[in-house]
Amino acid sequence: QVQLVDSGGGLVQAGGSLRLSCVVSGRTFSSYAMGWFRRAPGQERVVVASISRNGENTYYPDSVKGRFTISRDNAKNTVYLQMNSLEPGDTAVYYCAGKLTAYVSGIYVNSYAYDVWGQGTQVTVSS
Description:
Elements: E1 4-7, E2 10-13, E3 18-24, E4 32-39, E5 46-51, E6 58-59, E7 68-73, E8 78-83, E9 92-100, E10 116-117, E11 121-126
Parallel strand pairs: 2-11
Antiparallel strand pairs: 1-3, 3-8, 4-5, 4-9, 5-6, 7-8, 9-10, 9-11
């Protein structure tokens, strides 16, 4: 079965940057659209970035647009989330997720659409 291992979280000062990584097992990574979600204390899990199978289409909510960048390297079975200009409101557990899909250009923003999930990595932004 496909498994995801996400990493790269930590403590960073406001205005700083972090890069999260998610390594996906198996040889079917290119068949998955990928996303990053976060869950802040007392909040539901929400999407922060999504990317299509072919990497040509991405989505960001307004809360992170211009600050976060999602990318993927299908040869390395890895998806990344570059987070710049971090704010205390970005503090959350971040999860990578994959959705098996036949659409090479499809973008998915609903957490329930995704099939497999990483264990999460904590991001804490101090003020």
